[in-house]
Automatic annotation (TrEMBL):
Pfam families: DDE_Tnp_ISL3, HTH_Tnp_ISL3, Zn_ribbon_ISL3. The lineage of its organism: Bacteria, Bacillati, Bacillota, Bacilli, Lactobacillales. It comes from the Bacteria. Residues 47-90 form the Transposase IS204/IS1001/IS1096/IS1165 zinc-finger domain. It comes from Pediococcus parvulus. Residues 98-144 form the Transposase IS204/IS1001/IS1096/IS1165 helix-turn-helix domain. This is Transposase. Residues 160-408 form the Transposase IS204/IS1001/IS1096/IS1165 DDE domain. InterPro entries: Transpos_ISL3, Transposase_DDE, Transposase_HTH, Transposase_Znf.
Length: 411
């Protein structure tokens, strides 16, 4: 293989009309050291592109400075001599063309592809610019020119997930994905109900929206107010994690109030409620009632069940909240909608923190029970939001929300 072919293969250049004449090292105006590949571009042009006559003659060359993809983190350029032609009939000139670069551009397709690949790895614009030997503004221009946000997805999936995330300038943006394939459907700049309704009604017909079978949401009441309007045949599902989280928060609030009523801060019960709070969030099936273990804070050996019973026997009101929490936990884990319905129906208010939670569950009765009837959850969209947060943290935040959404589409 010749030296010319070796250099062209190294830069993944496949134009057969390019001939490498040499390699050198130079310094640019910013005193940066660059690697220069000298090449010529020439081929036989038969017809004039302006008038179509076969009367072309060679008319010198034109020097083009092209930016190549980097090989070792430095800056690589190609000084390309393009053959010029002149038509004897119309006196107009034209030049040799190559697929290496677009017309009137200096960045080759190779470096553009390299920028997009690095952007998918959640690197900042400055890091990408440093690796490719270009400026950060050039990185953003390449991304803006080559990445286009889709107007809409081709087909609306049958099962959707709704959620929001913090984007730019403390704004909360809306995110939607497919509950089965985990594919992102749309990301909107804000989470206002009006904008969400306008997006789906403007881009999807009534027949397309009627094919949606379920929409999984969190405890946000705004989503539940317009889901039936957008998707008339869809069942609203409240994510199981948020149900357990709300019940667990009521359990913690009651436990905190119970701790404040204890006068002796060195008592055994106080340390159990204070330091071993995780035991009360465990499922009853997972609580160890046979093997004694050393419990820090209490500084004693005892079984987990014994520690829980000591706290519950001392405070009957806390026992009531704990038993309700365990009933919710059991119904959610076993996906038993009848047991969940029975718990909500037979619940007796006792003026504790769980009363507010149960009232919230009753208001969202059908959507809450659907969490036990359907296998879908908000796990997929929470994973997407986690990637978005990682991108935002790696790039130290974004000021321009359009640039932020372009980077989101890449990951």
């Amino acid at each position: 293989m010749s030296l010319t072919n070796s250099i062209l293969c190294l830069f993944e250049i496949t134009d057969p009309n390019l001939i490498v004449t040499g390699i050198s090292k130079e310094r640019c105006s910013t005193n940066q050291r660059i690697h220069v590949v000298h090449a010529t571009l020439s081929y036989q042009l038969l017809k004039c592109p302006h008038c179509g006559h076969k009367s072309l003659i060679k008319n010198g060359t034109h020097m083009s400075h092209l930016r190549l993809g980097t090989l070792s983190g430095g800056r690589y350029e190609m000084h390309l001599k393009r053959q010029r032609y002149q038509c004897k009939d119309c006196s107009k000139t034209c030049g040799a063309k190559t697929k290496l670069v677009n017309r009137n551009e200096t960045f080759t397709h190779n470096i553009k592809h390299q920028v997009i690949v690095l952007a998918r790895d959640m690197l900042t614009s400055k890091e990408i610019a440093k690796l490719c030997g270009i400026s950060p503004s050039s990185v953003q221009r390449i991304l803006n020119a080559n990445i286009h946000l889709a107007y809409r997805v081709k087909h609306l999936p049958e099962n959707l997930c709704f959620d929001e995330f913090r984007s730019c300038n403390h704004w909360m943006s809306f995110n939607c994905c497919d509950a089965v394939s985990h594919r992102r459907i749309v990301t909107l700049k804000d989470r206002l109900s009006k904008d969400i309704i306008d997006y789906f009604e403007a881009r999807f017909s009534v027949q397309e929206r009627a094919q949606v079978q379920s929409v999984t949401i969190d405890m946000n009441a705004e989503y539940g107010s317009f889901i039936h309007r957008l998707f008339p045949n869809a069942a609203t599902i409240i994510d199981r994690f948020h149900i357990i989280q709300l019940a667990g928060r009521a359990l913690d609030n009651e436990r905190t109030q119970t701790i404040r009523t204890i006068q002796d801060k060195h008592s055994r019960i106080y340390h159990i409620l204070k330091s071993q709070w995780r035991l009360f969030h465990l499922d009853e099936i997972k609580v160890n009632d046979s093997k004694a273990v050393y419990l820090r804070g209490i500084n004693e050996y005892m079984t987990q069940q014994n520690a829980i019973d000591l706290a519950l026997d001392a405070f009957p009101r806390f026992r009531s909240v704990y038993q309700t929490y365990q009933g919710i936990l059991s119904a959610i884990h076993q996906k038993d909608a009848n047991a969940f319905q029975s718990l909500l129906t037979n619940y007796q208010p006792t003026s504790n923190q769980m009363d507010i939670t149960i009232n919230t569950f009753i208001k969202n009765g059908s959507a809450l029970l659907n969490s036990c009837r359907y296998p879908f959850s908000n796990g997929p969209i929470e994973g997407l939001n986690r990637k978005i947060k990682a991108l935002k943290r790696n790039c130290f935040g974004f000021r321009n929300i359009d640039n932020f959404f372009i980077r989101i589409s890449l990951i």
